[in-house]
Amino acid sequence: MDAYRSMLLTAQPHSIVVLHACAHNPTGCDPTREQWAEIGRIMKERQLFPLFDAAYLGFNSGSVDEDAYAIRLFVNELEMEAAVAVSFAKNMGLYGERVGCTFLVTKTAEIAGNCESVMERLQRSEVSNPPAFGAKIASLILDDDKLTEMWYADLRTMCSRIRQMREALYRLLVENGAPGEWSHVVNQSGMFSFLGLPYDIVIKLRERYHIYMADNSRISLAGLNTSNVEYVAKAITESLQASEPATKGPAVTAML
Ligand SMILES: Cc1ncc(COP(=O)(O)O)c(C=O)c1O
């Protein structure tokens, strides 16, 4: 938070700051409500423009509304102009369909009209016509109360399954005696876990155990299930136990 605050305090006025609305990728670490309040206050004072990247609404708490807390804080309470880029790739399971929605919240109707014409020009030059199939599915769901309620229920299911995997991985790492301290696995939230494994362990897991994760040891918890979580925890434990003392255990603090 200290580094984050000092970035905000020294950024040029009118800079655009990209904020992950919830379930931060890759760290799984979100600001607390108090920290959001501070971030918003500094950004408003320093005339910084918030661009919310909202790709995981519903994946933190199971509720889209709750996970939109920071967006509402900036827009409704702090009355700031903002851009919000919402993706339905993950929370509607439409990854390959390229579906999302961009909102621009402006102070006046005139600014909104100007933004719309700029967006239309950008769209024309960037993508011409966006893919429509996923967007039709998303609007079908959101235009129908019953389907929306079913989607909310699915989100709660996905969210609780991800949380169960987070807890299972943590429990198994501790039970197996994996070297290091693992509470960050359960303290993070959302779809990702930043394990904090050294690079050589990431490579060993990939080559010897066929467990694939980003080089910085970020995993998608959605890839874990009751049939493979034990294998993954055992492989991490064995790899760490067999490694040199200098590379043992998670190094999350240093990596963040
Ligand atoms: C924070 C964040 N924003 C956006 C995206 C991409 O969204 P889309 O697939 O809709 O482009 C991702 C990952 O895929 C992400 O992690």
Automatic annotation (TrEMBL):
Catalytic activity: L-aspartate + 2-oxoglutarate = oxaloacetate + L-glutamate
Enzyme class of the recorded protein, top EC level: transferase
EC identifiers of the protein: 2.6.1.1
SUPFAM superfamilies: PLP-dependent transferases
Stored Pfam families: Aminotran_1_2
Stored PROSITE patterns: AA_TRANSFER_CLASS_1
The Aminotransferase class I/classII large domain, residue ranges: 1-236
Alphabetical keyword list: Aminotransferase, Pyridoxal phosphate, Transferase
Cofactor(s) the record lists: pyridoxal 5'-phosphate
MF terms (GO), sorted A to Z: L-aspartate:2-oxoglutarate aminotransferase activity
InterPro entries documented for this protein: Aminotransferase_I/II_large, Asp_trans, NHTrfase_class1_PyrdxlP-BS, PyrdxlP-dep_Trfase, PyrdxlP-dep_Trfase_major, PyrdxlP-dep_Trfase_small
Keyword Lyase: no
Gene3D superfamilies, A to Z: Aspartate Aminotransferase, domain 1, Type I PLP-dependent aspartate aminotransferase-like (Major domain)
Subunit structure: Homodimer.
Family: Belongs to the class-I pyridoxal-phosphate-dependent aminotransferase family.
Other known facts: In eukaryotes there are cytoplasmic, mitochondrial and chloroplastic isozymes.
Record-given protein name: Aspartate aminotransferase
Originating species: Lithohypha guttulata
Gene name tied to this protein: AAT2
